[in-house]
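User:
Can I borrow your eye for a moment on a structure tokenisation matter? Would you put together a sequence-and-structure record for a protein of your own picking? Please set it down just below, with no commentary around it:
AI:
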Amino acid sequence: MVQAGGIAGEQLRSFIERIERLEEEKKGIAEDIKEVYAGAKAVGFDTKVMRKVVAIRKMDAADRQEQDALTDVYLHAVEGGQQPAASVQEEPAPEAAEQAPATTAASGDSDRYAQAVEIVRRDMRASTSYVQRRLKVGYNEAAGYIERMEAEGVISAPNDRGVREILKPAA
């Protein structure tokens, strides 16, 4: 394949020149974007917020919802128990099974794991943060439940996008 000045050399040069043209176009587009932000700033818009809105709009709806919920959990932890108003309104009313108080550590953990499995199967959402929010437990506990579900074949390992499949959905 390596040929000095032969067909492979021409093919390689073609790829390199194409990449260089695309890099130039990318540079031009980046300059255009800067100009748009400068124009928005000139008429009074906050460009920092605009950049955040653009980033959020690029996200998948489920990823956006999960990030928002996790942000609320972190704020709740950092602010010492002050639950943000947005998360109180957005969170659906938990079902009675999810509010059952833990008894002893051993049976409470087993009960909570069973609740976590039920939630994942019913809601078809297998993420640590989702289990954490629904059961109102710490991250490590929720992650342990997710790992156990994976080991027991309830859910798959995360795919290349970090998404898990529910292998044993609710009947």
